[in-house]
Amino acid sequence: MSIFPGKTNLASRNSASSIMKVTFVRHGEAAHNVSYTLRQDESAYTDPVHRDAPLTAQGKLQAEQVKLEGPYDVAFVSSLTRTLQTFDIIRMHTSCAKAIVTDFLLERQGGGHICNQRRDLDTLQRKFPDFEYAIPPASTRHYQMEFETAEELRERVRFIVDIARKMGGENVLMVSHHDVIQAYTGQSLPNCGYCVVEETSLS
User: pTM for this one?
Assistant: First the structure.
């Protein structure tokens, strides 16, 4: 089944009748993605020129073509520039009551992949002033060299899913990255691909 354009509906993780729909969107094509295609090795991810790699022109076009089934009660967005840019474009034609930026949806950390190291909080707030930031003030995230495991990625997403439940969200959007989305949903999404998971919500 083609995932983009369009979506993949995954089986519900729970049998309860009260359901929270979570739509996961991968960011559009970014500079490090293009560099990897050309180089065919991970130096594309460790090259300082690609720190917190932004969207390419093609990535912005991909985001413009995403058609989602809103409105959304809340969106949780990875704090990397490419995911923030993707959501900033998507929200122009998808209603969302609230947007929260979080480190919990960052791409897999480790390996010296500088493309996955975000900017400081002040820089992000200047570039994307309309969002709410759930990031500690003046923080510099610790970037580990050892890669996170798939279970560690799943735990990060579960934390955000639980917050969405407690907020009473029924239709939730999460904009994140390939490895994070794959670890939680099992889906390997292309740039700006998306899938929907049904989760039990709190009664």
Answer: 0.87
CATH code for the domain of 194: 3.40.50.1240
Strands in 194-200's sheet, in edge-to-edge order, are: 8-9, 194-200, 19-26, 171-176, 74-78, 99-102, 132-133
Looking at the DSSP assignment, which residues form a beta bridge with residue 19?
200
CB 153 within 8 A of CB 184: yes
Q: Based on the structure, what is the number of domains in the chain?
A: 1
Those residues with Cβ within 8 angstroms of residue 65's Cβ, 6 or more apart along the chain or in another chain: 5, 192
Domain assignment present for residue 158? The answer is yes
Looking at the domain assignment, is residue 3 inside a domain? Answer: no
pLDDT for 39-52, tens place per residue?
888 888 888 899 99
CB under 8 Å to 71, separation ≥6 — which residues? 94, 95, 96, 97, 171
Q: pLDDT tens digit string along 26-41?
A: 999 999 999 888 888 8
* CA end-to-end distance (rounded Å), the chain: 34
Could you tell me how many residues make up the chain?
A: 203
Q: Which domain holds residue 130?
A: 8-200
Query: Is 1 inside any structural domain?
Result: no
d(CA 46, CA 51): 8
